[in-house]
Specification:
Length: 187
């Protein structure tokens, strides 16, 4: 099944920097298809790798509602930032026009991922490179996430330059200031 013609489109420009927080011991390019991610196109042979428009959005996607934790949780992760070098065509569920296709905010926020998985498979079958969505754990609903599609498993990093480094203190400070996260020294 595919999405109806005219579904809202967002272009993720190849020169735009995007961010992902991942476990340092793992490849940042992992395309999930097991249904653990909101927009995994389950059963398609393809998966989703989750990125964010801003580093703070990547932070709250990873740490979600747990706002107090030991610094080991941060130290075991890396912040991956890159520019893809080519434009991607994303199904835009943040567009108000998506309502005429039956999409509401619950698609990106519901606890049950079944509808999101179905939508992802339909977006993939319709030729979209991924999905643009609002980050669920941002109460202000101002931060954007991107679920990018590719073959399931570890994907090849794009040829564009990327930086994969420890999470900077300024991001930890921003998370504390904006959302109330507290990172304490490991006992």
């Amino acid at each position: 099944m595919t999405l109806p013609r005219g579904f809202p489109l967002a272009t993720l420009r190849g020169d735009q920097e995007i961010s992902r927080i991942h476990r340092s011991a793992r490849d940042p390019w992992w395309f999930s298809t097991d249904g653990g991610g909101r927009f995994d196109p389950v059963g398609s042979g393809f998966g989703s790798c989750y990125f964010a428009k801003e580093s703070i959005a990547a932070w709250i996607e990873v740490f979600r509602k747990q706002t107090l934790f030991a610094d080991d949780e941060v130290n075991q992760r890396s912040l991956y930032k890159l520019r893809l070098g080519r434009d991607l065509k994303l199904a835009d569920i943040t567009s108000r026009r998506a309502l005429q296709f039956g999409v509401t905010a619950s698609l990106g926020a519901n606890e049950d991922y079944a509808a999101s998985h179905t939508f992802a498979a339909e977006a993939l079958a319709s030729g979209f490179d991924g999905i643009r969505y609002l980050v669920r754990h941002d109460p202000a609903q101002q931060l954007y996430g991107y679920a990018l599609f590719s073959r399931a498993g570890s994907g090849a990093a794009p040829s564009a330059a990327a930086v994969d480094d420890s999470i900077p203190d300024r991001l930890v400070d921003e998370a504390r200031r904006l959302f109330g996260y507290r990172v304490l020294p490991t006992p």
